[in-house]
Write a structure and sequence with these properties.
- This protein has 472 residues and is an alpha+beta fold.
- It folds into 3 domains: 152 residues, Beta-Lactamase, CATH 3.30.450; 104 residues, Helix Hairpins (Orthogonal Bundle); 162 residues, Heat Shock Protein 90 (2-Layer Sandwich), CATH 3.30.565.
- 51% of the residues lie in helices and 16% in strands.
- Helix 1 packs antiparallel against helix 3.
- The C terminus is likely disordered.
Length: 472
């Protein structure tokens, strides 16, 4: 079974990354420092042995054997002939075999060598070839060599320097990993608090909020965004609850009426007019069907993505829907040329139809429909000459199941969802539906984004609107 090396937590992953990076960095630095220390130390020892060897070679006397040591601490000095026989040596080196078998040539009189024994450590040796003139005078031309040696410092023996460096690297890596663990843990502490509080939040109680840390870093922004999302979610759930309550209330009346008619028919079959009872039951079921259909439409508008938009000639659509309206009260259209919007035809037809039906229901003598442009928006207004809507009720009428007294009187069978559906459709098309001030009656204003046209097409449309420019 494969072993999972990747830590589960962000804190663990960041700590692992920091530890690996620190190990590589400190390892490279440690290796470089250890190599530099070893090289500098050996260079210093070789300078001492070279000075000691050259000084003694210059003071050689065949009649006397030098018995003094060099002031640098080099105590191992030997004079060796070409047959590896020790001819002279200091007190510390007289009982030792030749310190080295290194034989510098005449072209290069000085050579350095590190000689290591298995159990006695390493010796840094400098070999100096006695000048030819001295060899001819003193030893009949036989080559002689002076060896000067000094033991390697304890720090450099048995890889102590490398081991010490490795220990320091591991210690520094451990300290870095610990610091990374602490810093990341402290940074993520607010995240843990947010997670714990989020786990306590449920649909039954959305009033809780996650703690917001001070500052304006990413975690603080996350906490604020989470609280804003929770607030919107709480508002949406509350709206759904209110909507469910309103649906229950609206469905209760026709269901109760249907139940009463059927119950009466069962209890008093001889006294009940069967035809009238069935007609009343049918009317109740028709109202139920209308309410349920409107509820389904509104639910789909809120929860599903609208169908693909298509270019729609707003003026042609208004003419068609106005022609389908009853002739009393009459509908007058005032249309501006070339107004095209991108929308779902079925949805836009529903909006225009609902607005026209609503306007005819409340109009005294006429309904006026106007289309125009305002910047990059198409504007459709539907005005009636009825009693109008009070300013304090102009937003409330777009809520689900809200029906003013005048509306209940004129259409007692309405569901109260028509305007809510219209506004939902407008919002889904990135538009608005509002009620503006009017000298008389109600003025509904629908604004939708115009279809984006290419510059050449826009120029052609401008020429069509301006005959004088076309003549030029």
């Amino acid at each position: 079974m494969a072993v999972r090396l990747r830590p589960q937590s962000i804190q663990g992953r960041f700590t692992l990354i920091a530890a690996i990076a620190a190990l590589i960095l400190f390892g490279l630095l440690g290796a470089g420092m250890a190599g530099t220390v070893r090289m500098k130390t050996q260079d210093g020892i070789f300078r001492d042995t070279q000075n000691a060897a050259t000084d003694w070679a210059g003071s050689l006397d065949p009649a006397t054997v030098p018995r003094t040591t060099h002031e640098s601490g080099v105590t191992l000095l030997q004079l060796v002939d070409s047959h590896d026989r020790v001819k002279a040596a200091t007190e510390a080196a007289k009982d030792l075999p030749p310190l080295s078998r290194l034989r510098p040539p005449e072209t290069s009189r000085i050579k350095n060598e590190i000689v290591c024994a298995r159990d006695e450590g390493c010796l840094l040796v400098t070999a100096v070839r006695v000048p030819p003139l001295s060899s001819r005078v003193l030893w009949a031309g036989e080559p002689h060599y002076v060896f000067a040696g000094k033991a390697e410092p304890p720090l450099l023996t048995a890889h102590r320097l490398e081991l010490l460096t490795a220990v320091c690297v591991l210690l520094a890596t451990g300290l870095t990993a610990g610091a990374a663990w602490w810093v990341v843990g402290r940074t993520l502490r607010p995240v843990a608090a947010i997670r714990a509080r989020t786990a306590e939040i449920s649909v039954s109680d959305l009033s809780l909020r996650v703690p917001e840390p001070p500052g304006d870093d990413e975690i603080a922004q996350l906490a604020r965004t989470s609280n804003e999302t929770l607030a919107r979610l709480e508002q949406a759930v509350e709206q759904q609850r209110q909507f469910a309550s309103l649906v229950s209330h609206e469905l209760r009346s026709p269901v109760a009426a249907l139940h009463a008619h059927l119950d009466e028919a069962l209890m008093y079959p001889e006294d009940v007019d069967t035809r009238q009872t069935l007609q009343s039951a049918l009317a109740a079921t028709q109202r139920l069907t209308a309410i349920i259909d409107d509820i389904l439409v509104l639910a789909r508008m809120r929860t599903t993505k609208r169908s693909g938009p298509e270019p729609i000639d707003l003026n042609a659509l208004v003419r068609t829907e106005a022609a389908n309206c009853p002739h009393t009260p009459p509908v007058y259209t005032h249309l501006q040329d070339e107004i095209t919007v991108m929308a779902s035809r079925i949805s836009l037809v529903r909006v225009v139809d609902n607005l026209l039906v609503n306007a005819q229901r409340h109009a005294e003598s006429r309904v006026d429909v106007t289309t125009s442009r305002s910047g990059d928006q198409a504007v459709l207004t539907v005005a009636d000459d009825g009693d109008g809507i009070a300013p304090e009720d102009r937003e409330r009428v777009f809520e689900a199941f809200v029906r003013l007294d005048d509306g209940r009187r004129r259409d007692p069978g309405g569901s109260g969802l028509g305007l809510a559906i219209c506004r939902a459709i407008a919002s889904a098309h990135h538009g608005t539906l509002t009620i503006d001030d009017s000298p008389r009656g109600a003025l509904f204003v629908l604004r939708l984004p115009l279809r984006k046209t290419k510059p050449i097409l826009a120029q052609r449309l401008a020429l069509r609107r301006d005959p004088a420019a076309q003549a030029r």
